[in-house]
Fold these 4 entries.
Entry 1:
Amino acid sequence: MRYAMAIDLDRCTGCHACSVACKVENNLPDGIFWNRILTAGGKSMDTPSGTFPNLSMQFLPVNCQHCENPACVKACPVKATYKREEDGIVIQDYDKCIGCRYCMVACPYASVRQFNWKKPEYAIDVAMGDAAITPHQYNTVEKCTFCTHRLAQGLKPACIDTCPNRARIFGDLDDPNSEVSRAIQGRSYFHLLEEKGTKPSIFYLT
Amino acid sequence: MAVVTNTKKTSATNLWMIIFAVFAVLGAVCWGLQLTKGLQMTNLGTDNMWGLYIVGFMIFTGIAAGSLLFAAVPYLFKLEEFKPYTRIASYLGAVASVVAASLFIIVDIGNPERVWLFITSGNWSSPMFWDFIMLASYMVISIMFTRKLILLNEGKIEEKSVKGLALVAFAAGILVTVTSFVFSFQVARPLWNTPAQPLSFLIAALAAALAVMMILSHILNKSGYIKMPIGLLAKMGKLTAALLCIELIIVITEILIGLYPGSGEDYAAFIWLVTGKGAVSFWLEMVALVTAIVLLAKQGTSPKAGLLLGGAIIALIAIYLIKSNLLQAQLFNPLITLPGTPVYGGTTEPYVPSLLEMGLSIGILSLGALLLNLGFGKLNLGTTADTRKL
């Protein structure tokens, strides 16, 4: 089994709902986003490029690419980040992370791995999201887990269920009948920084 | 009269020991503050996740390796005039440098209490784990080598019994290239991902060790601990200048190769460095490199100790800037630069270390100096009868 995600860029409107769903579901501390929506447009987020009326804007949602050949797993000196054999998900073990940030240096996909530079603080006093998530730790690196806690309950990752335009599709890449395999079939797609040889599990449909 | 002189020397040494101890304590206080408040106390961030501490680690690993080479080469290549100073070089590699390099890594990591995982859960595919092994072996080799060299000096063993260990120390010194693999093996960082980096690390290691040895020799000459002829210091200066010339060539050619295409990943990073937000630091690096080369190479018929000392200090500043600029130019220019959801510790360029980072680093340097001073006092490392009265 190899979990993968397809993101249909023609369907993404840059509403950030997946990003917010991820933040709530995983009770992410202030300033931490595992799932960020980048703008291929102007110099700032959510701004177009060009001059009116000739403007263009495209969104690029980016989270951990759960690579088949992950640079972070090779780099981590203490095996705190590893790839699950059973489904290919790249995991960050908070209890083992020494906080050296070498995985952040090694990852080509800027900012998908983030560090708790201070004790986690939250916008509200009550914990949000699923009670099954692993508590966040001070001085450790964290990132998208493909919502392993939801997968264990037979659910899909929170970003998949939340996307109003069904731009995100998830499933087992080894199963030709899975939603993700069917979504990719017949479509043109690309992987982020494919030339780096990391073999990401995120397919961007164009 | 001699007694008075020695008393003066001892009190001056004690004063320095107190100053180093005070700064080491200050460093410890800074570390305590960083541990309780978190790495938010540094000016590091999501993009520039590595800074002053990692540069300190690079430089001191280099000094350790270069010192081992300095200590081993005279025995392997029969350079008689350098042999009396190999004990100091070997001890410098063993204590000040390895301890300082290790401490720079310890203070950089968020959870130092988990550092034992390097032993129980070490990842053989990680270049950082290889570095851990390198540093540990440097410590062992340097201690053993220093001991042998002291015994040799005391006439308790013969020179041929040193050669085996000298060969090991030489090989270990050359293997400082492994340190560069932490950076040069990363496909995510094209500026570092070049075969020039291992060579640059080796050259910088030798130049930094020679510069530190020149500074130490200058101080120890004045105190009477050793009597290194000015001609020998000048030779070390010229060798350092030649090594810095190679560094200068590597830096300039890398930049020209990166800038020539006019676009792309390397171009973005190098234009940031040469004319962008990193320019001040880059041009300081150029000035420091050229100044150090001129001061160290242009000695004339009567070399001056003061100029050599100045050249050595500026050489160390140049090496710091080379490493720091290489780090920042790449970290501030990641492969994906599209604007997106802001995160804590987002780009704040250019990077200038926080006061706490500086305080902690000065603390580590002071601890290294303290250990060095202790070694000079307790061990028979010098070349004169005054050796143990430093």
Entry 2:
Amino acid sequence: MDVSVTKRGNPHLSSTAADGDVYAGLVRAAAAGDATAMEQLLIRAQEVAFRFSLLVCGHAPDAEDVMQDALMRTYRRVGTIKDPAAFRTWLFRTVRNACLMKRRKRVDEPARVESLDEPHGFGHSDGTSAPRDVATGGKGPEELALNAWLGRRLRRALAALPPAYRMIVLLREMEGLSTREVADVTGMTEVNVKTRLHRARVMLREALGSEDAA
Amino acid sequence: MTGLPPVTCDSLLAQISAYLDGDLNGSACAAIEHHAASCAACGRVIEDFRRTTGLCRTAATAPLPADVRARARARVLELLKRR
């Protein structure tokens, strides 16, 4: 078995810089008046918002509002950006904050606020976390969309993770941000990001293994 | 004697993310690869981690549902039309 997997040999890690470059290029072009670039950038911003909102926050009704928020903030931001390379980090931070604001405004959840930053986000006294809509929700359109997007197997495995770990997986593994960028978005240290990513990978592997065995 | 730092199954699991993310030096990587070459279980663990990462990355590149994309595009066109 070939086990010589290195950063250089891992195609999933090599896309990080390229993804950031794409965003930076779109920002520069959009700021210069390129309508196509602006359109693509605004659609990407909403896609980021959709993925983050549904996968990390797990509250389907918020997704459309968070997408709208990302759209407007990106549109207003483009003309004032000094460092296009930093746009992607700004976008994820903005989306994360929008999700947090939506959560705080929800009147029916003050007793079980799910933190995006704590590994055991539901505040259960026993330190456990219960997966939310992303895992156990009904058959609403967003849940079905998640199945269609991620596949039932990966969705269930991700759902077994605490929200804070899902956020790290989304940003690092799925969206391709670097450890430094994830730290910037979340306000964690890089060491903390790496620790949580490792734990999340261990849990994901176990969950996917269970799915295989089921 | 390989001259490489010793690696056990437990220490490999603890370092596997650092290994896959390119955070280990050449000697540490070689030691992990040397261990995994002779330990089928650890070889599978590395493959599992690699596959998990790949699964996530592939999912991220999949297009969003058509209705979500259509609404996103409609919002953009509406916004750009107003400016």
Entry 3:
Amino acid sequence: MKIKEKIVLYISLILALSVNKVCSQDSTLKISGGICINKMVGFYFMNGVSGEISTSKILKGKVDLGLNITTSSLGSAFVSNAIPVHSAELYIQKVFRNGKHFRPLIVLNAGYAKAFYGSKIYDNLPQSSLLVSPEFGMRYAFNFPIVFNATLGYNVISGNGVSGAGFIYPVYIRFKALYAFGKK
Amino acid sequence: MKKIAFLAFLFVVSCKKEKLPPIDDKIDLDGKQVNDSSLIDPSAFLLSSAIPNPTSTDLQKHVIITAHGFSATNFEWLEFSSWSKGKSDLLVSRVLLGGHGRDYADFQKAKWEDWQKPIIDEYDRLVSIGYKNISLAGSSTGCPLIIEMIASNKIVTDNLKHIFLVDPIVIPSTKTLPLAPVLGGWIINYITTDLEPAENGYWYKYRPHQALKELNKITKRVRKDLQKGIDLPAGVKLTVFKAEKDDAADPASAVLIEKGIKGSKIKMLNTDLHVFTRLLGRASFSTSDKDLQLMTFEEIYNSL
């Protein structure tokens, strides 16, 4: 399990370094960042941050690449007895009707989630899971550099607690508020 | 994995838009002819009916009220009840949950509060008769019903000593259960379960979407209660016995109970049987399953 965590960490690091490099030399670069509120239908709120970039150097700027980092510790497990679950996902996103206020979007996320059951007696239970989820929904772009996303997603991998981690529910609703850096 | 695939298959198969399942009245508990025996002869199951006028010695004995799981009957606790006959200071009262053991229409109509009511009623009756040492034992869905009784202060707990939870369901294994309120009634009407031949007549074969919705409600409610934290009443102990490979009630249910009820004792057990304390009616089980069952019965008794 630790290897998977490391992979996610390295990918995030590489992404961050690439952003940094591209940033200094690319005028088509768009970077947005903000909050991500995530509710698995029938289960936890997992909240955190999201960031995304697009540049003409990646698929001619037709898609955005992004990262969500969410945790139940900022959601259902905030000052409660819920299980702490942390997740990191990379995503590729296509937004349609750019330039309009309402913009349909489709997203494909892939990542990793880990729960902390808090006792050795649960060591035999699966406490981590890969995440793969298609997502679709709508973006609203304000006249100022902020967008709201409301999307519905489906976790392809969800477990019964025996053959896969039981804290990942299939259907989820996600809301993001992102600020586009460098825009006026 | 096979079971999940099978459940998924059943889910798809059950997606047919027919109103009523093909109930076989002669065999299925869901039909009009087969009913749980406790409805005809409560005195063989409920202590309050069996010994309405107990002696002062009886009143000092340990009493365990058992509550079975979703779609089951008190058959689930038959082996424990039979085993308890060998203990002179132990009495067992087997409750049939409301809406259960009757027919499909009754199961459709019943709310989770109806499922729970007979547990509360039997507890109250035994308290008013004068029993001093009462414990509650739930299996599967019987467990969230008991937890909710405590969280919502539905019983006076002065005479309550211990709560035993066998394979409690707080997180269902089937993660599509929260979709029952959305899909129920137009995409699915019921879900068919595969029963062993010897289980026929003791479990409902068909699970109406209304009942699934209630199951979703009670598990969700108890998860919320546990998130907030539930205080065990003074002097009451709680022990959870959880199968590690239980593919009906997610084993992580035990985690939520441990986190939500401070002081609870959790025993994770190496078995893949859901409600491993019931072996009767299963197509097969091993000697280690039998050993675990008897060990758990002993542990329950010794904890009293």
Entry 4:
Amino acid sequence: MFRRIGGRLKSNGYPEPCRRINHDPETHAHIMKLRQAILTSVGRKALMALSGVMLSLFLFAHGAGNAVAFLGSEALNSYAAKLHSLSFAVIFFECVLLAAFVLHILLGMSLFLENSQARPVRYQVERSSAQRTPGSRTMPYSGVVILIFIAVHLVNFHFTDRSIPAAELVRKVLRQPFYVFFHISAMAVLALHISHGFWSLFQSLGLSHPKYDAALKNSTLGLALLLSALFIVIPLCTLFIDEFLL
Amino acid sequence: MAKQKIDITLQIWRQENPQSQGSFQHYSLSGISTGLSFLEMLDVLNENLTLNGQEPVAFDHDCREGICGMCGAVVNGRPHGPEPGTTLCQLHMRHFKDGDHLVIEPFRARPFPIERDLVIDRGSLDQLIQAGGYVSVNTGGTPEANTIAIPRETAEQAMDAAACIGCGACVASCPNGSAMLFAGAKVSQLALLPQGHPEGRERALNMVKRMDELGFGNCGNERECEASCPKRISIRHIARLNREFIKAALFSE
């Protein structure tokens, strides 16, 4: 028998194709046009920027949450417990974050692969002007390092025994010198990645004006350094200050 | 005062035709006057080559005063040479030292096939213009010049974008071989002026689409194009293209 997925069976026994949700040809044309626009280089860069905004917002929230550690182990434990008690909200934001990550990675890969084909014969002498920054030069590679870090980080802190109080877990993981070295190196790479990314996303979304261009460039660089410094200070404190989070 | 005559060695890309395998050839020139332009130095080389019965180096040039956009080669890794805001024809030998070794390569990008030696086919930029870098105007009597008031600041910005001579140095310098500065300048100059508004949305969408089809890379906001542009066109115009494109994609009827 035929499985009826939708619509009636036609007289010849085959099911009619599923009807589109949009009957209106004009709406359909608009959606096709938008889809086409999203798949262009500028469209994908804009999505890259938007997913970058979401990931940056997460970084800020995560950084602010981590800063609770400076208030002591009890504060951190109760903060973590409170966060986990918001189960549905947490799952919702985790899904959004995962989607942003997947989108950012897939788009990044497609742009990188295309770019690597745009100059089949390379220059004999490759000399950059001073405009290119270490961050912009290494975006795809720093992205890979961050991805590896996130995988390790999730295994250590997310997919682990949740019954251990947060402060204890932090001390357990971040008192291993080798791991702390890896963590700090990865955070330095993160700083490199966002030193270009924070500014670049504004440019990709078309937000540029002489009135705020200079301020934007400097403040995004400052923010990148501040954020990664915060993520570096906590492992350092845990490793070198015996009473930290005890 | 700097030395009036210098000796230099050249390493130039020689390629018979689009299909053939090219290679670098070495030449040395002595007693080059520092008053010569870069292209005049190549003229001297070609005269020597011709006198010796060898094929001269093919290179593009036309006005030799920095406004036609015909010349261009990569000198020691920099399109149009080491001087900022200068086309190759306006680069002078006084910027080089005695004993310098110059590596001269054609602009390289997938949409710029090499025709011969340093001559490339920049037809892809013309195709990009055909996708939307124009305004459709009704013929008829000349309209009164000042009927549409345009603020001076806006007119200046449009003029900055319109300074693009289409030389392709932005594509040549871009690590990703992207033509976003060229497309940005063309979209920007028209987006800023009332005459460009009626076709504004279609222009942004069509030019970006065509740019991708032609095999240019994606903009990585590396800002290399801005540094090598002989007309110093700012990447602000790329931001305006992005803005116009996003507006068109989301809101066009």
